Amino acid sequence: MSNAVAVCHGEFGRAAIYQLDKTIIKHAHREGHLIFHVDDAAGVVEVGEETHPLTGDHCVAVSPWEPHSFHLAEGRTSVCLVLYIKPMWFLENSESAEFSLMFGAQRLTLTPVIRDLVNRLTTLLLDNEDEAAFDKLLFGLTKACFDLSWVDSDDARRRWARRRFSDFRVRRSLRHIQETMSDDIDMETLARSVGLSRPHFFKLFKQYMGVTPNVYLNTLRSERAIDDLLQTEKTVTEIAFELGFSSQASFTRFFSSNVGIAPSEYRRVAHVSRGGFPMMGKPVRLSGMPAAE
């Protein structure tokens, strides 16, 4: 069963080390997303229509709201460092970022600098040492990957990055989904409320957001569930019913498929602090991991 080795939440977003042994279905995040292979078997990340091997030599960069999924051969296990970086945190801490964490390329070849930052950040998460260095390393790794992603990218990608959220009908539908995410949203009715047919609405929504309305809704529900797990005393069953699920079992299947681990496991491992440092989960031994400096 997949489990979280360490998870921390902070002003930057979320950083986690996951030990995965199953597929994570197509989903999306409002954050910029970086995925690094740390140990055991290599996996495959599908971003949009592209498939990228996740190995010790390459990482995968996923822009906010880009649909993606994770795949692993049956019977194998993969340990990954996974970052979910809030676009505004990155933009506020960067002197040169232009696209609020839109990446210019999805598959990045690890440079010696990036590889060193991955090793050091992973060590900090595992050993819970040198909390003061965490945010600095996290930003340095994100910025190095962001800059590398735009080295060979074309103008079409830049134009796409700039036009997100520009259609008023899409923006209106986003507000409606956010306000009614716990209800059984009828997409036909939602399309009519913004003056479009269902096929035209789905096409326009995906054109500007990069995901379908259903994937967007699943993202909001996952985020709300994580917030409730970490910041309230609600039971998993209470969270499930408040989000519109018919049972705890159906919510657990949804959460596991979209986040990678069960909600009870996530609550047990994750920790929130202003310093953004983790509570340790199940121990895992990694090969060749250097000590943090």
Topology:
Elements: E1 3-10, E2 13-20, E3 24-27, E4 32-40, E5 43-47, E6 50-54, E7 58-62, E8 68-71, E9 78-85, H1 87-93, E10 107-109, H2 112-127, H3 134-149, H4 155-163, H5 168-179, H6 187-193, H7 198-209, H8 213-231, H9 236-242, H10 248-259, H11 263-269, E11 271-272, E12 279-280
Key features of this structure:
12 strands; alpha+beta; Arc Repressor Mutant, subunit A; 2 domains; disordered C terminus; eight-stranded mixed sheet; globular; 293 residues; 11 helices; Jelly Rolls; four-stranded antiparallel sheet
Structure summarized in a few sentences:
This protein has helices spanning 87-93, 112-127, 134-149, 155-163, 168-179, 187-193, 198-209, 213-231, 236-242, 248-259, 263-269; strands at 3-10, 13-20, 24-27, 32-40, 43-47, 50-54, 58-62, 68-71, 78-85, 107-109, 271-272, 279-280. It is an alpha+beta fold. It folds into two domains: 3-160 and 270-280, Sandwich (Jelly Rolls), CATH 2.60.120.10; 164-255, Homeodomain-like (Arc Repressor Mutant, subunit A, Orthogonal Bundle).
Low-confidence stretches: 273-285, 288-293
Give the count of helical stretches.
11
Percent strand equals 15-25%
The CATH topology of the largest domain is given as: Jelly Rolls
The Rg value, from CA coordinates, equals: 19 Å
Instruction: Report mean pLDDT, rounded to a whole number.
Output: 83
Silhouette: globular
Q: Quick one: biggest sheet?
A: 8 strands, mixed
Structure write-up:
It is a single chain. Helices cover 42% and strands 22% of the residues. It has 293 residues and is α+β, with helices and mostly antiparallel strands. The protein has 2 domains: 3-160 and 270-280, Jelly Rolls (Sandwich); 164-255, Arc Repressor Mutant, subunit A, CATH 1.10.10. Strands 1, 2, 4, 7, 9, 10, 11 and 12 form an 8-stranded mixed beta sheet that branches. It has a 4-stranded antiparallel beta sheet with strand order 3-8-5-6. Residues 273-285 and 288-293 have low confidence and may be disordered.
